[in-house]
Structures are given as structure tokens and as C-alpha cells.
Design a protein that fits this description.
With 155 residues, the chain is α+β, with helices and mostly antiparallel strands. The protein has six helices and four strands; from the N terminus they run H-H-H-H-E-H-E-E-H-E. Strands 2-3-1-4 form a four-stranded antiparallel sheet. Helix 2 crosses helix 3. It is elongated and about 55 Å long. The mean pLDDT is 93.
């Protein structure tokens, strides 16, 4: 953990990542502090980049039917330019909600959310597999989500 974070900072971050709408007064009450120092700490945590953004986490089941697919992608060769091109293309695809560079058998792990299997087939065929540097794509379809957390462990 960064040495700029003390126990109070971590406690504030823990509260905010559970509910970003928690106001400084409520955080102060929970921590046995006054509102002003808590507010100042939150501002510092924002300014120093510990808090990147505040977001609403949507209930996807109430919005639309969807499936989640993990796509394991390998490039023909791990050349810097090929990787950069892949990064730029993947950033343009709204279906890709997360992209990781990984070690091992594959080069990338994509978390893809689409409406149904037909939509995934179109995505895989016309977007990912059609990129010039793609060596292969394997897919794993999520059958049941056991845990989905946005909390970062504050050790």
C-alpha cells in the first residue's frame, strides 16, 4: 500500500468504494472524526489520483438480457506495433468492457458483454478475428456469476 495512505485514508476509501454517494458528514460519523478533515482528505485523495472517478454500478439484469464471454486472444507475433494496433481497435469496441494483457498461452483476456450468442459470433468473426494480427481466439461463456465485486482490497 502506498505510504501516503494511512489507516484513516484507507477507511475513507473503503466506505466510498462501497457507496460513492456517502457524504463527508456520514463518513466522519462512522470514523469518529469531524466533517472538515474528512472532506479535506477526500479532496486530497481525488487530487492525488487515489480516487479516479465516481460511477453508478448498473443492474444489468434490469436493463437488458445479456451474456458475458471471456475471450482469450493470441496474436500471430508479440510485436509492439501489433499489440498497439490491437489495443487501439479493442478500445473502440463497446462490447469489450475489460481488456488485460496476460502471460501464458494467450496474449489478451477480453471480458465481452453482448445480447446473445449470435451477437457474440458476429463480434468474434467481424471484429476480433478480422484484425490482421490475430493468431487465435478461444471463448468461455459465463453460465452463472458467483461473485462480481468492484471493491479493491485495501490491505
Amino acid at each position: 500500500m502506498n505510504e501516503k495512505l494511512d489507516a484513516i485514508d484507507r477507511a475513507i476509501l473503503g466506505i466510498l468504494q462501497k457507496d460513492a454517494k456517502t457524504v463527508a458528514k456520514s463518513i466522519a460519523e462512522q470514523l469518529g472524526l469531524t466533517k472538515t478533515p474528512v472532506y479535506e482528505r477526500i479532496k486530497r485523495l481525488e487530487q492525488e489520483g487515489f480516487i479516479k472517478n465516481y460511477v453508478a454500478i448498473l443492474n444489468k439484469d434490469k436493463i437488458a438480457k445479456s451474456i458475458t464471454v471471456f475471450s482469450f486472444v493470441s496474436l500471430e507475433a508479440q510485436k509492439g506495433a501489433m499489440m498497439d494496433d490491437f489495443f487501439e481497435q479493442v478500445k473502440k469496441y463497446p462490447e469489450v468492457v475489460e481488456c488485460f494483457v496476460v502471460g501464458g498461452e494467450f496474449d489478451f483476456l477480453l471480458k465481452v458483454v453482448v445480447e446473445n450468442l449470435d451477437a457474440y459470433y458476429d463480434f468474434a468473426k467481424f471484429k476480433i478475428a478480422s484484425l490482421p494480427s490475430i493468431g487465435g481466439v478461444k471463448s468461455a461463456f459465463v453460465l452463472n456469476e458467483v461473485k462480481n465485486s468492484t471493491d479493491f482490497p485495501l490491505l
